[in-house]
Each structure stands twice: as structure tokens, then as C-alpha cells.
């Protein structure tokens, strides 16, 4: 009898495992490819506003509506919604209730309009508990674009909420829910595949044991077959062998060496640092669910070296009317009464030897907050997402292309760069972004 009949089934098990693993990876990749790029927090899909209104925006108004959308989210969305009352009234139909010159005056200085005795202004002021609307340094064109956005979004369905308070999409567009459903479906498929693989392994082990029992009862086996059939693993000999001890020793030394190097490399790094704050402020609630623009609280992020920590009066713009009895909000009241700043704990710290300018990155470079701070709109408690090391910054400068279109300053530099680098992207590094004096001077 040939000894091949007695071979172990390990190669069959390995083949089955590799097959199911490959199938699972392909399935996961297909599910992930539904939406690889994601959605910018607070951004609406192209044409969503016009579609929600039931009409297509004229081609000439598309730019104004897009600009108005950004301005609305950055300046108005903290107190107003288009189709719902928040801190202030719903803005749907504002162009029908008031003429545009009145709206412009109101946005620029509402207190002046109220003081003038305007009947409608006084009515609104009294109706909303005499809450003073802040003045906005916006141009007439910018205010007009906000009104154009409001008109385009009138009648859009308001997101419903389930009993747990989670927003539920009531529109007919089901891209997000379909993607989530596809993800759950693929998870179910992977679970089924794993169960099937386990069943196959158990079945093969049972068959192997049955075959051994059958073969032990046969008398026509030669010596080689009997030797293979009765062979057993001598674990004691293996554990006492010199080569195993050598391998274990080498692995132990390598692990200790690796952990030591990693520990030394991590000296001074604070990635993952997540301190407790004096007030339980949730970015997930404010920036995520309510889509409050970062610049509303961090007012200097687009125009200064530092992204300032908001003062208590910015919190009071909303919380003089909202959740006034919350224990956390009462901490803000106490700070105001005592005329003391809130002692927020700084999370992102760069050494004094490194220079960093927020406005240079956000305003000029167009870098999104999430690029460095991670998914801030999903954090209940903020933590340091990125390493913020010199190597991390330099890699970003090497990989990030500069937007040089329409800026004559770069024309000759781009030409010289393309001639010398065969059309490679003109990155921050190409413009001297990796020179020591850019960050250390």
C-alpha cells in the first residue's frame, strides 16, 4: 500500500484557509470601494440644495449658492437653520418677508435697526427673548449669496431623530445607508465563510482519525506504512533541542532591542495624548452633529499664527438660551461671574524651536483641520491625532502640491521646476518647504 494515503491533511487545510482569506479580502475591498474618499464634514453633495428645493439652480447662481452655503455654515448655522427654529428664527422665506436692503442692514448691525424703531426688527427682538444678534463684517454680495443659498434650501427635509437622538436620513438619497448596509452584508458573508472553514477543518480532522482507525485494523501494511501511522510528535525532545532555544533567545533579544528603540524614539512625543478638560465639551456634538464651523469658535485660525481658544462669551452666544441648566454650562457661568478664564488643558504642543503658522496652512494652503487634527468632528474628548514630528511635517511638505494657478509669482518657478524635474508635481518642498530656516529661525 502506498504511503501517500497516510499523508497528513495540513496542505489541504492551508489551501482552504488561503482561499477563504483571499475571498474575504476581495469582499472587504469591494465594500470599502463604495466610498473611498468620504465626505467633508458639513459639506453637502453637489446640487443637493437645489434638488431639495425641487428646482435646479440657474447656472449663473450656482457659484453664489455655493459661496452662500460656506458663509451660512461659517457665520449663521450656529443660531439659525433654513427650515427650523434654533436659537433664532428659521430663515426660509426671509427674502419674501423683508427686502434685501433691510436684510443687509440687519446682518451688518441688527442693534442699530432695532434702535431705529423698525416695527419688524423690534418684534423679532422681543419674540426671541431680546437676544442680541452679533454684527457681521460681510459685504453686500456675501449677504446676498447667503440669501440665495437659503432660497435654494427652502423646503429641504429636516433630519428626523430616533429615540436615542441619532439623526436619521429621511431623504430619498440612500447612498450612506446603502454603504452601511453593504458593509454589514459583507461582514455577514465573512462570518459565514469563517464558520464554513471551521466546519471543514473539524470534518477533515474527524475523517483523518477515522481513516487511521480503519488502517490500524488492516494486516497488509508494510513497515513504512506502520511507522507513518504510529508516528507521534516528541514535544519533550523539541523543547530541549538547542536550535529551539537559540531561536527563542534571538527573538527575545530582538524584541527587547525593538522595544528599547521605540521607547527612545517616542521620548517627547505626545501622540494619543487625551487629557481631561475642566468642562466636558464635545467636538462630536458641536462640530459633528450640529456642524458648527471650526472658525466660529477658533476665530483666528484663518488669520493668525495661532488658532485661539474661544472665550466664554462665544459659548454664551448659544448657551444663554440653550441648556442653561446643564451642570457643565453652569461652569461657564461661574467663570464669567468670577471674571476668570476657563483653564483649558493644551493638547497640541510644538517645541519652542519650531515655528508654525495656522493661517499659512489654512488660509493660503487650504489645508483642512482634519489633515492635522484627525476626525475632530467625531471626538467626544479631543486627543492628539498626528505625531507632529519633524519627519511627519517634512513628509507632508514633500507630498503636498502647491496651488499655483492664477498666481504670477509662481510662473517662472514652476517653469524652472518642470524643466529640471520632468514634470514632477510642484510641491511645498519644491518651493523651499524643507529648508531648515522655514521652521527653525
Characterise the protein shown here.
This is C-type cytochrome. It comes from Hymenobacter busanensis. GO terms for molecular function: electron transfer activity; heme binding. Pfam families: Cytochrom_C, Cytochrome_C7. A two-stranded antiparallel ribbon has the order 1-2. A hairpin with a 5-residue loop joins β1 (160-161) and β2. 53% of the residues lie in helices and 1% in strands. The radius of gyration is 32 Å and the shape is elongated. The chain is an all-alpha fold and 441 residues long.
Task: Name some characteristics of this structure.
single chain; 441 residues; Cytochrome Bc1 Complex, Chain D, domain 2; 21 helices; 2 strands; elongated; disordered N terminus; heme binding
DSSP summary: helix tally: 21
How confident is the prediction overall: mean pLDDT? 79
What percentage of the residues does DSSP assign to strands (E)? under 5%
What sequence of helices (H) and strands (E) makes up the elements? HHHHHHHHEEHHHHHHHHHHHHH
Helical residues, percent: 40-55%
N-to-C span:
83 Å
Let me know the number of strands.
2
Residue windows where pLDDT falls under 50 for at least 5 positions: 1-9, 31-60, 159-177
For the largest beta-sheet, the strand count, sense and barrel status come to: 2 strands, antiparallel
Q: Which term fits the overall shape?
A: elongated
What is the CA-based Rg, rounded?
32 Å
- Structural class, judged by helices and strands? mainly alpha
Strand order of the largest sheet: 1-2
Amino acid at each position: 500500500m502506498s504511503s501517500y494515503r497516510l499523508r497528513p491533511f495540513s496542505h489541504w487545510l492551508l489551501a482552504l484557509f488561503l482561499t477563504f482569506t483571499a475571498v474575504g479580502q476581495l469582499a472587504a475591498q469591494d465594500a470599502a470601494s463604495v466610498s473611498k474618499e468620504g465626505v467633508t464634514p458639513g459639506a453637502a453633495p453637489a446640487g443637493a440644495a437645489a434638488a431639495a428645493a425641487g428646482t435646479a439652480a440657474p447656472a449663473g447662481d450656482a457659484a453664489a449658492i455655493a459661496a452662500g452655503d460656506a458663509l451660512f455654515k461659517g457665520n449663521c448655522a450656529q443660531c439659525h437653520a433654513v427650515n427650523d427654529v434654533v436659537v433664532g428664527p428659521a430663515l426660509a422665506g426671509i427674502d419674501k418677508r423683508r427686502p434685501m436692503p433691510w436684510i443687509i442692514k440687519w446682518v451688518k448691525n441688527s442693534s442699530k435697526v432695532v434702535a431705529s424703531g423698525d416695527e419688524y426688527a423690534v418684534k423679532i427682538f422681543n419674540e426671541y427673548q431680546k437676544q442680541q444678534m452679533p454684527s457681521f463684517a460681510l459685504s453686500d454680495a456675501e449677504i446676498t449669496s447667503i440669501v440665495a443659498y437659503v432660497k435654494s434650501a427652502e423646503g429641504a427635509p429636516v433630519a428626523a431623530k430616533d429615540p436615542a437622538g441619532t439623526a436619521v436620513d429621511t431623504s430619498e438619497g440612500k447612498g450612506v445607508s446603502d454603504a452601511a448596509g453593504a458593509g454589514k452584508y459583507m461582514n455577514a458573508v465573512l462570518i459565514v465563510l469563517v464558520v464554513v472553514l471551521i466546519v471543514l477543518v473539524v470534518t477533515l480532522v474527524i475523517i483523518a482519525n477515522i481513516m487511521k482507525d480503519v488502517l490500524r485494523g488492516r494486516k497488509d501494511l508494510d513497515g513504512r506504512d506502520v511507522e507513518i501511522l504510529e508516528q507521534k510528535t516528541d514535544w519533550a525532545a523539541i523543547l530541549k533541542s538547542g536550535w529551539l532555544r537559540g531561536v527563542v533567545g534571538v527573538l527575545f533579544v530582538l524584541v527587547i532591542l525593538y522595544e528599547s528603540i521605540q521607547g527612545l524614539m517616542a521620548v517627547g512625543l505626545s501622540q494619543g495624548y487625551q487629557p481631561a478638560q475642566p468642562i466636558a465639551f464635545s467636538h462630536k456634538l458641536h462640530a459633528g452633529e450640529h456642524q458648527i464651523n471650526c472658525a466660529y469658535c477658533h476665530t483666528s485660525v484663518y488669520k493668525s499664527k495661532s488658532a485661539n481658544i474661544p472665550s466664554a462669551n462665544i459659548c454664551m452666544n448659544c448657551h444663554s438660551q440653550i441648556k442653561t441648566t446643564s451642570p457643565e454650562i453652569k461652569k461657564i457661568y461661574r467663570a464669567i461671574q468670577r471674571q476668570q478664564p476657563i483653564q483649558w488643558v493644551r493638547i497640541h504642543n510644538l517645541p519652542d524651536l519650531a515655528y508654525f503658522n495656522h493661517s499659512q496652512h489654512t488660509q493660503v494652503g487650504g489645508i483642512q483641520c482634519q489633515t492635522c487634527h484627525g476626525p475632530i468632528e467625531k471626538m467626544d474628548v479631543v486627543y492628539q491625532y498626528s505625531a507632529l514630528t519633524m519627519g511627519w511635517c517634512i513628509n507632508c511638505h514633500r507630498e503636498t502640491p502647491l496651488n499655483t494657478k492664477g498666481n504670477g509669482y509662481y510662473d517662472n518657478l514652476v517653469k524652472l521646476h518642470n524643466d529640471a524635474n520632468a514634470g514632477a508635481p510642484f510641491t511645498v518642498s519644491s518651493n523651499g518647504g524643507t529648508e531648515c530656516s522655514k521652521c527653525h529661525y
